[in-house]
Amino acid sequence: MPVDLIMRPLTGDDFARARTVADAWFGHPVGLTMHRLFFDQLGPGGVYASVPEDPERMVGVLLGLRSLTEPDLAYVHFHMVDPDLRGQGIGGALYREFGDRMADAGCTRIRALAAPQRTGSVAFHRALGFDGPLIPDYLGPGQDRIVFGRALPIPRG
Length: 157
Fold this sequence. Notes:
Elements lengths: L5 E3 L6 H12 L9 H7 L4 E4 L9 E7 L6 E9 L8 H15 L4 E6 L4 H9 L6 E2 L9 E7 L6
């Protein structure tokens, strides 16, 4: 786990930096999954992670929101971590920071989606205590997703 991370809300200004690395960090094109509108309008609910040695260097990002239809639900739209720094706890730290903020706002649970073939994402969510069903065609024909959920807060460790 990193000794130190700086966590702050996302801003619209973070979009350009995140967009530049997104396809490489995800390992596939992300298309409109990452849109400037999300950063401008939902950014304050998200989390930007950097390190004290270089606070301008993005090491991870999580874009999430509090559901309008289910106010007790926090939803993670996406998160990404610099591939060179994976395995050091940054992804979990992003989720915990977001989960803590959402719990403070009244959320009691959190949800995230994962494509079943993205085995790293599936393992990551399960390691954080998420569980959920595989729902065929969740995002349209041939777009199966595991709809992960768990209670908040997400324990440290």
